[in-house]
Write a structure and sequence with these properties.
alpha+beta; 4-stranded antiparallel sheet; 102 residues; Alpha-Beta Plaits; globular; 3 helices
Length: 102
């Protein structure tokens, strides 16, 4: 059986406040843990950019399919963020900051 490459994708989420991220961060990490196909997940508040930054690895052999602007990882992050955060400040937006093979 061939070994698939791993793709690491970093997604930044704007539209949340620091306090909203602090309140929902553990729920987000728990949600990621419920999805075993998402590997080496992390999430943190980026003070400088005032955004939630999520990093996820998953198996795959295509940067576009796994991590591109319409990729599977972005969809997963979107689903989890919407489920775990209450956003009072306004609309939430998602940007793929980087996608690389690891």
């Amino acid at each position: 059986m061939p070994v698939l490459k791993c793709v690491r994708t970093q997604v930044s989420v704007s539209g949340l406040t620091k306090s909203e991220v602090e309140d929902g961060l553990q729920s987000l990490l728990d949600e990621f843990a419920e999805r075993p196909w998402l590997q080496d997940t992390s999430a943190r508040w980026d003070e400088e950019r005032q955004r939630l930054v999520v990093s996820i690895e998953r198996e795959g052999d295509s940067l576009a399919v796994q991590g591109g602007a319409t990729g599977a990882t972005l969809d997963e992050v979107w689903d989890c963020v919407i489920a775990c955060f209450r956003c009072d400040a306004g609309p939430i937006s998602f940007d793929v900051d980087s996608t690389v093979f690891v």
